[in-house]
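cron nightly-structures :: item 1 of 1
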Amino acid sequence: GLRDKFTSACAMEEAHAQVPIEMSVESLEKFCREASRYFFDEFGLISHQLNSYNDFISHGLQELFDSLGEVIVEPENDPSKKGSGGWKHAVIKFGRVNLEKPAFWSRKNEADVYFKPKQARLQNMTYASTMKVEVTIQVSYLEKSDGSKKGNDDFVQKRDDLNQTHWVFIGCLPVMVNSNLCCLHSLKESDCLFVSGGYFLLKGMEK
């Protein structure tokens, strides 16, 4: 029955496992060459570099800003300086990160056009992306309630003075050639048949 078939299959597997695989040095070398060739044909030489960079721009950079938390700006309270608004302090929060594909302003087209690696190489420029971060600024101040003016115990209350969110330019991030952020990736083309990417262009030099 089914039990006998299962027992027979297990016995055959044990028998095969006990048989040593005889492979000469020549056969082993041939196997390694073929395995290496298939691997590099499938993934290429620099796939680990591209995958690492793509993971950073997709997840790592956002996680970096998320880890910063809130930045509290709280100046010292000087009672001698009287004025409207009381004692102000601010809280800065970082939100979404936006990376734009490399581009430059074209006077001819009067618009941003894609910036290709070969243009950065020929003009000694850095192939980089514009990085913007969503920043929320909350400003509030502390003031005494009317009860304190009547001789009662001081009661300090918080009042919101400003709460705004803006996209702020943080800086430029170098773009790895042929990564997901590279213009060549979306255009499905290459600067050269023999160039597979995996490097940066800083002031026209490959790094």
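cron nightly-structures :: done
The chain has a mean pLDDT of 77.
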